[in-house]
User: What shape does this take?
Amino acid sequence: MLAHSPPFPLLIDYDDINYSCDRKGIMLALLHRDRVRRIRLMGSIPILEWLVIVLDDEFPMLEYLCISPEDNTTLRIPRAYQAPQLRRLVLTNLAFPIGSPQLSDAARLTTLSLTRIHPSAYFPPNELLKRVSLIPHLETLMIDFHSPLPDDVERELLHMQNTPHVTLPNLRSFGFGGVTTYSEAFLSQITAPRLEVLQVMFFKQLTFSVSCLLQFMTSSEKLMMRSAVLSFDGWGASLWVYPFATPGLPTFALRFSSRHQLSTAAQIFNILSPVFASVVDLALEYEGHMSSTQ
Assistant: This one.
């Protein structure tokens, strides 16, 4: 049927439902690689291992690739995979080094999301800076590590030198999950003047350094802040800041894990206080109880 159909774009969407039927359909679609525009693969690792293997070829029209196994894995994208027209790359729980050959020609990317990055695929901030500097059209960047970095790696980050400063003129959304040592090293060398959404999640650690986060936020002209919700729980605290009095989508979101929520919150927000000057509404939440001040 596909062989005789008009050359419409093909979308491959797999999520572990009716696997036997989906496998046949995927194989048929892959016979027409020049028509595949989107691939989204989600599910259990054993099944995705086979599906990822069949990507070992060139997809000249592919614009969107999303691979998300249920659990963390050392699964990698085949080296022969190529997608010169790719605009959105979303990978979760994969061992995908930032220096992977699949990103060697990524100038067209508008979205790069690497979440729950496997420890074996760790890359230092200078490598991330080098890569994103080659993606001028990048609008969305998400970097989220699976676990905190070993102590020796953190010491290495503290002594980074000669890292280039990068301006991302089109970046509108940035998200990070990891330790502040990494985020500070990365953000100290990056500017995003059109940033509109910022999301940060910090692992549990002894101290939280956020001075470069402050510098990064103040360099943006688009981060609007009017109302905020600060929530405490047994694991840490979360802050959501909204551009309007009526909450909708947050402009800024920060989550940290700490046994000493109040002292940690004071440490972080004392540093970030300059960017909250325009906030006029603050709601405080703790274990379901809320009070409000203006």
